[in-house]
Amino acid sequence: MKNYLVINMGLKSIRVIVFDSDFEVLTSCSKPITTALNGARVTQEPNEWISAVDELLFKTFIDIDPKAIDFVTVSASSSCLVCTDVDGNSLFEAIMVSDKRATVEAKEIENSSYFGEVKKETGLACDPYLMLPKILWVKKNKPNVFSKTSYFLSPNDFLISQLTGQFVTDVFNAAKYHYSVENSSYPENLLEDLGISSKTLPQVRFPGDVVGVLKSSLCTKYGFRDDCKVVLSTYDALCAFFGSGPSEEGDACDVSGTVTSLRALSYRDPSLFKPNNVFLSRFSPFGMSVLGGSNNLGGGLIEWAKQCFYSQGEFSYEIMEEEAKSSSIGAKGLIFLPYLMGERAPLWDSNARGVLFGLERQHTRADIIRAVFESTGYSLRNLVDSIEKSGLPVKRLLVSGGLARIGFISQLKADITNKPVYVVDNFETTAVGAAILAMIGSGEIPSFREASSKLHIQTIILPNPKNVEKYNQLYKLFGDVYYSLKDTFTERSEVCSLLSRETTKVIENL
Question: Which pTM value belongs to this model?
């Protein structure tokens, strides 16, 4: 039996978890990381990641012999840009996925004469959250950093470079650079037009590939065996999908940490699907495809509401849940648009913002938190609808992540989507999924179906038919509120750009 060490970097914390081949957790530890919010800018410090991993590895090896580790893999958020020199040293703050500073650059890329063909090949429009707009922003606004950068990496790639000295990425992280999986190439003509060398982008491999062995200096420092291998997984949303245990056509995995990711499984010919504002990821060697995407805030909405309206006491989440239950369906006519940081899939609207619609004198804190809770279900249904419009019927929802710990929200999701909700027994689905990819790559397990058979369901929650009918009407109102304000959000963004703003950074955990 082999042991797998997973480094899992989320938006709030970094975890190190060791699994055996039966997915039993041998040891785990975590450390929070900080995020700087400053207007449209959302950043983290890559050197803090290195320091955190260093501390966590030493903690891990208090409980387990480092020589017992056979494989190491990494999973982290996608679409976060790290600029490094030729030795892999970070040159600039990491521009995180929800950072919206590259709006102008995204439009510039869309207007390139080469982008139409790139969009046709990849099925992906250009949004400020993607990698090329971020790189172009660095080129235009930080020319000294751009000129010194040897590699533009995602957090996955950056941490792997620290472990192995190799600058590689997987095909699904590469897609965020508008890499064509079908043609196995970066968009050379577009890159040349933008003045970005493809040599600064990481080499592309497939999840499960062995990158190499750990650096000898790390083996000496921590006590790893010198034959300990590093295996590629992929970004957190896809890892969490596989870690949720999907096995049948139409199984959809709702992983709600800071953001909500919804992906659905299919064994059908991927050419049958026409992605409707969601991603199509082809796992061709395994005969499967995955349809879906991530929004900008899932569980992060609850953290925001907790900071705004509740004390930081031990039982805040329990109080929030009880108050939400005490309100009525529809929060007495109160609708909350949850777009506090704009929205990714399926709206792709970086200008959208949060709105409390229908606020009256009668409303209480309980109604507001109920509206926030319900908004997580409406956002999820947006994603479900987009997957189904792409041609893949969703049969059931496998839910995990921090938000799945709030039982009432899982019931709301069942009622709002009219889908049965299966709460996954293991909430660390991202780390489990990364381990699954490493195990398949190392030959420890033969298939995803084999891996899924080892995972378990904690609870099954069925939709309440009486509530479903009411939520159908409320969901329509939720959509009407957003689309009636869509142009106004753009106008607001233009006005805000003229306003004088404080430049002091606010440091928060997302």
Answer: 0.80
Where are any strands of DSSP class E within 159-202?
168-170
Give yes or no for a contact between 109 and 115, defined as CB atoms under 8 angstroms apart. yes
What is the per-residue pLDDT for 105?
Answer: 96
Q: Which residues contact 485 (CB under 8 A, 6 or more apart)?
A: 337, 355
Q: What is the DSSP letter of 185?
A: B
Give the whole-number percent of the chain exceeding pLDDT 70: 97
Residue 53 in any domain: the answer is yes
Q: What is the CATH number of the domain that holds 414?
A: 3.30.420.40
Domain termination site, one of 166, 199, 234: 234
Domain that holds residue 13: 3-234
d(CA 31, CA 194): 38
Q: What is the pLDDT of residues 300-327, one digit of tens each?
A: 999 999 989 997 777 889 999 999 999 9
Q: Which runs of consecutive H residues, i.e. helices, occur in 234-364? A: 236-243, 299-309, 316-326
User: Is residue 352 domain-resident?
Assistant: no
Residue 230 shares a structural domain with residue 248: no
Residue 355 belongs to a domain: no
Over 50: is that where the pLDDT of 509 sits? Answer: no
- Count structural domains, the chain: 2
Same domain for 250 and 172, yes or no, is no
Q: Does the pLDDT value for residue 504 go beyond 60? A: no
Q: Considering only CA atoms, which of 352, 289, 329, 340 is closest in space to residue 475? A: 329
- Asked if residue 259 and residue 147 are part of one domain, the reply reads no
Residue 77 neighbours by CB under 8 Å, 6+ apart? 9, 10, 11, 96, 97, 155, 235, 236
Element (H, E) at 430: helix 429-442
Q: What's residue 282's pLDDT?
A: 83
Taking CB atoms within 8 Å and a gap of at least 24, the contacts of 442-449 are 442/2, 442/70, 442/71, 442/208, 442/210, 442/229, 442/231, 444/2, 444/21, 445/21, 447/286, 448/242, 448/246, 448/247, 448/286, 448/288, 449/247
DSSP string, 49-69: HHHHHHHHHHHHHHHS-GGG-
Same domain, yes or no: 107 and 209:
yes
Residue 510 is predicted with a pLDDT of 46
Distance between CA atoms of 86 and 158, rounded to whole angstroms?
A: 12
- Give the pair of three-digit tokens for residue 151: 């590699």
* 505 lies in some domain: no
Task: Identify residue 371 by its one-letter amino acid code.
Answer: A
| Same domain (yes/no): 133, 52 | yes
- Give the chain's mean pLDDT: 92
